[in-house]
Amino acid sequence: MHNNGIIAHSKDNVCTIVQELKAKDTIMIKDANREENFHVIQDIPCFHKVALVDIAKGKEVFKYGEVIGVASGDIKKGEHVHVHNVESTRGRGDRK
Amino acid sequence: MEVFKVMVLKGYKRENGTYGIRNHVAIIPASVCASETAVRISNLVPGSVALPHQHGCCQIGDDLKLTIDTLIGLGKNPNVGAVLVVGLGCEGVPPKELVEGISETGKRVEKIIIQDLGGTLGAIREGGRIASEMARELSQQERVEFDIGELTLAIECGGSDPTSGIASNPAVGYASDLLIKNGGSSILSETTELIGAEHILAQRCINEEVAQKLFKIVQDTEDRAIAMGTDLRSGQPTPGNKEGGLTTIEEKSLGCIYKAGLSPVIGVLGYAEQVNEGNKGLYVMDTPGQDIDSITGMLAGGAQIVVFTTGRGTPTGSPIAPVIKVTGNSSTFHKMQDNIDINAGRIIDGEASIQEVGQEILNEMIKVSNGKYTKAESLGHKEFGIYRIGTTF
């Protein structure tokens, strides 16, 4: 079994998976900073993001150690993180 | 990082001391009304390329100026050995101004006016005569040695996915850093795709003035998006970006800036603004996130070669510069093998390091500079578009 998740920065609360995963498949992460295995809780396409920890609604989502948006709903560890549960904070003409 | 003592390429020396890696006769229409005629002349003359576009008339102010500057910049590009300007005769972009601007390089530039030559057939006849004569002249020019430091690299990405930020962009960034260490210049473009990452790039600007200029172009772009009254995410990231796994513009941008490696940012250029030949290094150019228009801006700025990263795969080429395609996604490399030159997906697959693929990209840039066709070139891809900042009146 090989690593199938990449964490871009130690501050990140999401990782990028490098193979397609089905619900209950195991995500394996091992790098200089951490080593852990956990189950994904739904089907997730290759190269999409998975929550490494629970992320409460309104909290910032970190990738590359930087904010890529905020959670638009509560996100559970192992859940798919994408446009359905993360909002951008930039270029929001719809909010005026 | 390796600095090569001698890295000699072979190209075409221009009258102003720059070096081209291709030797095109460019047929440049002054307006949309002259574009079809320009294409037909080019179809008659091997060695020539037409730059057909939708602009050049009923434009005003800075938008008109941008079209003029872009057409002049493309004519000046070192990959162009001679230029035929094709005017209709009544358009807003003065053909004479294009000729004068391009002539500053010392290369041969001529113009024809369709309304003065009897129309389409007369213009094709005269234009064909001039262009074929130019092509015969250029065919006799021999490649001469020049230093890799004379190269300006246009860095572009399109159809990105999360592999771009992990693999292909960092590898291109490594190649860009190598080029700059050896005295060359690189241009990072696509201001939209700096939104959310500008604070990181600003820390790498050589002084506060450059940093403030960077913040301003990003702010202006975001303000334009906000003025549209909708969520930028309805268009950026694109539907394909999102399907690939990119969630927000911030995520896309943070991956995009890896293309620029780790070099300091020495200047911020406007769209189509010429790179200062006396000041080599990494520039940022204010271009839109749409690939074709963005590449045009950098070529008008003087870049001779394009390295283009893609996650989803794209066929894009250019009329006047070779475009090397790199993907960070091995699946895309195999699915789009007609169009992709280098597979940086080997980094994710654990088969190669970022540095190894970066070196491979630089080696490919050298081969392509010396004449090797990229896949886009060998398939005749000549996508071309000019950025607009105003409406047509």
Automatic annotation (TrEMBL), chain A:
UniProt key word 4Fe-4S: no
Gene3D superfamilies registered for this protein in UniProt: 2.30.130.110
Domain SAF residue range list: 12-87
EC number: 4.2.1.7
Key words of the record: Lyase
GO molecular function terms attached to this record: altronate dehydratase activity
Superkingdom to which the source organism belongs: Bacteria
rRNA processing as UniProt keyword: no
Pfam family, one: SAF
Broad enzyme group: lyase
Protein name: Altronate dehydratase small subunit
From TrEMBL, chain B:
Protein name according to UniProt: Altronate dehydratase large subunit
Enzyme class: lyase
Taxon lineage: Bacteria, Bacillati, Bacillota, Clostridia, Peptostreptococcales
Enzyme Commission number(s) of this protein: 4.2.1.7
Molecular function (Gene Ontology), one example: altronate dehydratase activity
D-galactarate/Altronate dehydratase second domain mapped to chain residues: 11-138
Boundaries of every D-galactarate/Altronate dehydratase C-terminal domain copy: 150-391
Source organism of the structure: Alkaliphilus hydrothermalis
Record's keyword annotation contains Lyase: yes
Keywords: Lyase
Pfam families: GD_AH_C, GD_AH_second
Protein family (similarity comment): Belongs to the UxaA family.
Domain of life of the source: Bacteria
InterPro entries: GD_AH_C, GD_AH_second, UxaA_altronate/galactarate_dh
PANTHER family noted in UniProt: ALTRONATE DEHYDRATASE (PTHR30536:SF5), ALTRONATE/GALACTARATE DEHYDRATASE (PTHR30536)
